[in-house]
Amino acid sequence: MPASERDEAQPRVPAGAAGVSMRDLLAACAAAKAVSTPPCDPVPRAPRTAHEPPEPRRAA
Predict the structure, then answer these.
(1) Does residue 9 have a pLDDT over 80?
(2) Per-position DSSP letters for 1-60, written without gaps between them
(3) For the region Disordered, what residue ranges are annotated (predicted)?
């Protein structure tokens, strides 16, 4: 690369100068993952056996 092109290149900006902290960046990534991940299927329950007591009824 000729010296004239190297002199005209933009200086690199340090990561801290971008104005976003690592904590904010990680929080944004976690939020994006939570929003974009579809919910998983519910875990199927095993059928009750004769030895198990019946489940308590919930009041309506």
Answers:
(1) no
(2) --HHHHHHSPPPPPGGGGS--HHHHHHHHHHHHHHHSPPPPPPPPPPPPTTSPPPPPPP-
(3) 34-60
